[in-house]
Amino acid sequence: MVGRSTAGKIFYCRVRPVLLVIAFTALALSACRIEDRFIFHPSREIVQTPLDAGLAFDDLYFITADGVTLNGWYIPHSAARATLVWFHGNAGNISHRVENIKLLHNKVSVNIFIFDYRGYGRSAGSASEEGTYQDGVAALQLMQKRLGVEAKNLILFGRSLGAAVAAEMAGRFACQGLILETPFASIRDMAKTVFPFLPVGLFLQSRFDVVEKIGKISVPLLVLHGDRDDVVPYEQGKKVFSAARAPKEFYTIPGASHNDTYRVGGDAYFERLRTFIDKALRS
């Protein structure tokens, strides 16, 4: 017969692997919920348009290769030398960027095209990593074929999650420059930041690996990051910059957190954008 203490040890050794499997299964399911709820946080309601800010614009609808109808706004500028295609972050929709659009339009003097990924605003479908890339392709094809924008006049601008989409597009389409604002290194890096004691990143399907993408791009690059970013650590922006090829520039926005870069940065922020774009157009 096996003694009670020995039997208890055998039982414990047999149960422990089962508990580990249960724990990892629960963690994987939690990661799936995190992916659905926190990577993408869309809003359907359009709260305002550029017209509310005194800007004329074209309300455009276009279709992706997999048949999803997307919505975007084209805001022309009479003195523009470049067209900036804006890939926004993971929350809200294009209507939450109107204040920023107006300032960018007035202070940098560029044509602006901003659009909603699938599942955001008036765009159909539901968001996914691959979906955002298909959406980016459709947006740039729209610029080329419908609006006649040439690569020599095209600047890609990605903010936060949009930095990953913009970097992916810069690897697929010719453009004159790439601007990444408050970029994270990858979704796994962000998972480590938000859940430092849980290996959530191992179970996430979305990668949005900006560091991997940026190393393959050779167009002029500007990375901007607030040094008080409360969502994406400043160090992740530096990591993206370090992985990039030259020519490249890094601009710290002193005192800025994640969502107030253009307000806190003020005229110096917009001047840096304008200077970079002018330089990229001459390269």
Summed up:
The protein is an alpha/beta fold. The protein is built from 8 helices and 10 strands.
Unreliable spans = 1-15, 17-31
Under the CATH scheme, which class? Alpha Beta
Strand content: 15-25%
Distance between the termini: 84 Å
Question: Could you list some keywords that capture this structure?
Answer:
single chain, 283 residues, alpha/beta, Rossmann fold, eight-stranded mixed β-sheet, two-stranded parallel sheet, 8 helices, 42% helix, disordered N terminus
Overview of this protein structure:
By secondary structure, this protein is of the alpha/beta class. The protein has a single domain, classed as Alpha/Beta hydrolase fold, catalytic domain (Rossmann fold, 3-Layer(aba) Sandwich), CATH 3.40.50.1820. 42% of the residues lie in helices and 18% in strands. It has eight helices and ten strands. The chain has helices at 4-39, 98-108, 129-145, 161-170, 187-194, 210-214, 234-243, 261-282; strands spanning 41-42, 58-63, 69-75, 83-87, 91-92, 111-115, 154-159, 177-181, 221-226, 248-253. An eight-stranded mixed β-sheet has the order 2-3-6-4-7-8-9-10, sandwiched between helices. A two-stranded parallel sheet has the order 1-5. Strand 2 and strand 3 form a beta hairpin. Helix 2 packs across helix 8 and helix 3 (129-145) packs across helix 4 (161-170). It is globular and about 45 Å long. The N and C termini lie far apart (84 Å).
